[in-house]
Amino acid sequence: MASAAVIPSNGVSLEWNANPESDVVGYKVYFGTTSQNYTAVIDVVGATKTQLPAVSLGSTYYLAVSAYNAKGDESPRSAELKVTADVPAPAANTSMSFSAPGQAQLQWRYPKANVPVADKFTIYASEDLKTWSSAGTVAASASSSSDANWTYFKFPYSADKKRMFFRVGASNAFGEYQ
């Protein structure tokens, strides 16, 4: 029997646009679980991207960024960003169609609304339902078609095994639902 699993990512990063002022030497990223009450400040020198502290799935976080110059003068903080660390919903209605022996196409659909967004889908294959390995990935932007409620995906697959099992994992920056 196969079971679903939520696998948190190893880390989440934040990236922002550079401040246009020429004397900017760094940024401060403010991070917390309550609006306007930041429990962590990350100093980022000479870059516009940083790793965030560990996040807990299902929790909401608030972030803001400011720029500073060599004298330590700090700009006002950016507008606050509110982010909930949710992994995507699972892929739905996974099926396989065959065009010739060993030639198949795995198909699934993904909801368009009311679920966390998936960035990509990873296709896992197994011969025994115990050991799974990645057979490939499909970007969320590579859908084959869509309707008002669903986005549809296809993944061609060639197999030289008599029996194979497949599952599709949906993932984003916060983790993967398999």
Automatic annotation (TrEMBL):
Domain of life (superkingdom): Bacteria
Q: InterPro entries from the entry?
A: FN3_dom, FN3_sf, Ig-like_fold
What PROSITE patterns does the database record attribute to this sequence? FN3
In Pfam terms, one family for this protein is fn3
Q: For the Fibronectin type-III domain, which residue ranges apply?
A: 1-90
Name of the featured protein: Fibronectin type III domain-containing protein
